[in-house]
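Re: the request from the purification team.
They wanted to know what the chain is likely to look like in 3D before they choose a buffer screen. I agreed to run a prediction and write the result into the notebook, where they can find it.
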Amino acid sequence: MPTGPGIQEPVPYLLQRVLRGAVIAHARSERRRFHPVVLHVGIPSGPTRELELQPESRLDHALRVEIVQAMARPFLAEGRVPLSWLTRPVVGPDEGDLAWAAAVGAAGAELGVRLDLVVITRRSWHDPRSGVGRSWTRIRPSPD
């Protein structure tokens, strides 16, 4: 099991499939070229809680941690550890990604579970802390 921050190589097969599915779901559901950044907490292809992030809102670390905790608690109460992800239109580093990754890590520590954050675009996913990710030129659903 990785001990460093974020998702580490080798990425477990099941996690790869879940994240690939999340990329496919995002590509299917978001057809606009430019769309807002959205924080998702939950189970990809299952129940999720979402928060659209406004570019002008300046959330500090403590508020971000509280938001993530509030979004994660219903899943933890059911005995499921949720995944956290940001969907956004552009690929590449963004300082907001690291701020949310830090908040997700802190929220997980306070809740007593390991929570990680990935950033999902229409053709890729990546962990902003470790840099681990996958990208596709053209992504299609698996035949199985």
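For the purification team: The CA atoms of residues 39 and 86 lie 5 Å apart.
Please add any questions underneath this entry.
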